[in-house]
Amino acid sequence: MIKNPKQTVFYSIEKAIKEYRKFALKRIQEKFDDITIDQALLIQFLNNNPSLSQSEIAELIFKDNASVTRMIELMVKKKHLKRTMHKKDRRKYKIELTKKTQKNLSELNEIILKNREIALQDIKGSEIESLENTLLKIIENCK
Description:
Blueprint: H1 9-31, H2 37-48, H3 54-60, H4 65-77, E1 81-85, E2 93-97, H5 99-119, H6 125-141
Antiparallel strand pairs: 1-2
Helix pairs in contact: 1-5, 2-5, 3-4
């Protein structure tokens, strides 16, 4: 017999993710009202790895290629990203942060780090390590 969904670990995992995303989005949008969490992640990934392809970005933020394409198009319109034809392969685009986004990058990173700090407050390093190990086991079991 299936238990009440609220009594499963998967319910707690999903609820924790949703609560964190809601909390983080609110704090990001206090300063940057036109950036979502996924867009903030995309900005961070591109800043740290400017040569990432759209499919690599999609994998990192758990989105399909079509969703990432729409996200990039929207961010180009909002002038957070610029997209130019790849010099060596005309089938690809080079995606870069605009000067506007680069200027706000340190403040956005501070907000993201603070969000994580608040969410993990009063949780010991050993507890986080144990949780990560457990989640990795669940991931491996599902492959």
